[in-house]
Amino acid sequence: MVQLPATLLDAVHERVLSGLDDSPQREEIARRVVAYLRNTAETTVSVEEDGTTFVITGDIPAMWLRDSAAQLTPLLRLVVAGIGSDEDRAVLVGLLTGLLRRHWQYIVIDPYANAFNRTEDSSHWDIDDTDRDNPWAWERKFELDSLSYGPDLAWRVWKATGDTSWADEKFVTAARTILETVRTEQHHEDRSTYYFRRSDCPAQDTLERDGRGSLTEPNGLVWAGFRPSDDACELGYNIPGNHFLALSLDRLGELLAEVAGEQEDAAEARRLSAEIRAALQEHGLIDGPEGRRIWAYEVDGRGQHVFLDDANVPSLLGLPYLDCVPADDPVYLATRAAVLSRQNPYYYAGLYLEGVGSPHTPKDHVWPIGKNIEALTGTDDAERLRTLELLIRTDGGTGMMHEGVHVDDPSIFTREWFSWSNSMFCELALDTAGVHRDPAP
């Protein structure tokens, strides 16, 4: 595993302290940011012989494309803010670009898998039946975010540093694989061979209709079998996933044009992005409370929709965090109000916590990831500090962030070791301290 430079971690501690001078818990917040950064590096990150970066999710020895990018995103904040020496920041950029090169490898191997093994050893979460036997895949659940996080992170790294070492010989092939997969899954019923079946399991762990998922009608959106929670989609078009995919395709188009010099592929990425955005406007909006238009969570292109939100990102609540919509957009604000209310069946409130949970975890469990996203997409700096302090008080005495925490008893939680959740605490703490993810315009 990887050890971050001690000089860098000291600089992070001082920067967070100086940025949180209004919090009585500033020392504890700064200490935790350093502890979580160190824990992520030392327990989940490894640099492979080929120079790529492999990142396990925590208590599962596999790498999720979504999670791995989110786990290392706090490192980009440190680079953008100029924290540490040039040599320290070069270490961070190396880890980020190495992760991106690993993403490209995996996407070329199998664009439908969500989680991968370190080696081609056929390790897996559970027995399943899909249209392809892939010994690299820990799990082969098709989720839109698996194709989105890499291009988005590559764009952010490029904009922040100018580094293009991530654009290796696999990049263009991976980009074309993404484009082909998007085109195919816009017409899932007619063009896709993908299916996913699992027996003797909860309903959310397999797809109906013999592994094909619920019936959809083409409308410009991109089909997915599973949500960012790894639970099956109830309807085939996940709205937050399509939002993030559209953004990532736009950014992929810029990378293909400006870095790789592939103008035709760049134009295709932008065309697909525009098509998805138009379809979101036409098919993704529903009537919410008081007649206001809000975003659905999923639709099927056949007139059906479902409203909920799940703490896993991409989420409706997290759309501004992902740069998909402005935080003051009226439709987003109406959607946000519905998400943070009983209209969302996975909004829970109790003695210690209230916020968004997930059907992936038991009832009355709020996710720290959801609380961090709620604060990051809000506009109240004092609320951000209160959220950080709340998360510290409700860690069940473990010193770590968890997956879900019971609203009435923080000693009841799921996943004692969940690196993405630790990284999201860092995201909120660093942002609140003025350490931003993107360079100033």
UniProtKB/TrEMBL annotation:
This is Metal-independent alpha-mannosidase. One of its GO terms (biological process) is carbohydrate metabolic process. It comes from the Bacteria. It comes from Brachybacterium alimentarium. InterPro entries: 6-hairpin_glycosidase_sf, 6hp_glycosidase-like_sf, GH125.
